[in-house]
Design brief:
This protein is mainly α. 74% of the residues lie in helices and 0% in strands. The protein contains 7 helices and no strands. Helix 2 packs antiparallel against helix 4.
């Protein structure tokens, strides 16, 4: 009976689930960016099939920065739509340039890259939830008289 009451409370706060997904996604992307900085050989191995050698340096730094900054912004729910949009090209590349030819259920995780891309698209369209800096700033905006 007590469990049903708790589930009923959660069902009335559905935006909490959206916020928790945003928090988890932000942390995951932030830590992926840290991993790319600490272990540059990892991103080099991902980029070994990258067809445009002249853009290699730019892409590596873009991906690391997008994951670090964008992940942190997603974590706090600050500039959520922009931070999701900035990361979409990196995930698009991960899906279509890195993981697609390797297929599903490999160590490179095509299915995980597709899921993260999908979630970023959702946050780009819908923005952050109620438990975010964006929502706080929106509810406490000061209008000039």
């Amino acid at each position: 009976m007590m469990l049903l009451k708790k589930l009923n409370v959660l069902s009335k706060n559905k935006s909490l689930g959206f916020d928790l997904v945003r928090l988890y996604l932000g942390m995951g992307l932030f830590f992926r960016g840290l991993i790319f900085l600490v272990q540059p050989e990892l991103i080099n191995s991902y980029m070994s099939t990258f067809p445009y050698e002249s853009l290699f340096f730019v892409v590596i730094h873009y991906v690391a920065f997008a994951h670090l900054a964008g992940g942190l912004l997603l974590l706090f729910g600050l500039l959520t739509r922009i931070s999701a949009l900035v990361q979409i090209p990196a995930l698009f590349g991960a899906v279509f340039l890195v993981n697609l030819e390797k297929g599903l259920m490999t160590n490179d995780s095509l299915e995980l890259s597709i899921m993260v891309l999908f979630l970023l698209i959702l946050f780009a369209f819908f923005g952050s939830g109620k438990l975010s800096v964006d929502a706080y700033l929106e509810s406490h905006s000061f209008e000039e008289d």
